[in-house]
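Structure ticket #2291
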Amino acid sequence: MPPELSDDHAAAICQVLIDHGVEFVIIGGMAARLHGTGHATVDVDICPSPEEANLANLADALRQLGARLRVEGDPEGVAFDPHPDMLRQVTTMTMITEQGPVDLCFTPAGFPDGFAGLREHASTIVVGAVELPVASLEDVVISKRAAGRPKDVVALPPLEAHLRRTNRSSRTPDPPQR
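Resolution: structure written out below.
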């Protein structure tokens, strides 16, 4: 298993995105951890806006980060050109960058409208001097429940408990289906 990605590495990745004017929301395990859950993660999951200008900004940022496609068995990844036309055609993409692993997800589970739906409840969390746009913990729970992958199912009880303890929820997520 790859080493856990530090908050500082996530902030460095996101700073490049911010510097390029990319509109995005951090989702998944990194979002959960930034909300103080103690969740471990090996990458930063980003849900970018699919708007044309944003895809051009994202392509420039990925080039600056030295992004390469992540492939099993190749720790260096595979070179590619993150052209906006290519980005427009994908729903998810896993990459390795000079700062660590990054996953793009344009339509996370539970959020068919992607960025637009997540932005509505996102908050800003500061790491170092970087203001990071982070999906609400409730939206992370909703997405993990909708994804239903084994690792998400295992993560749900502690995330839901943290959500109840901190009263961060303005909307009550449905209990897990059994």
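Closing remark: The chain has one domain: 7-165.
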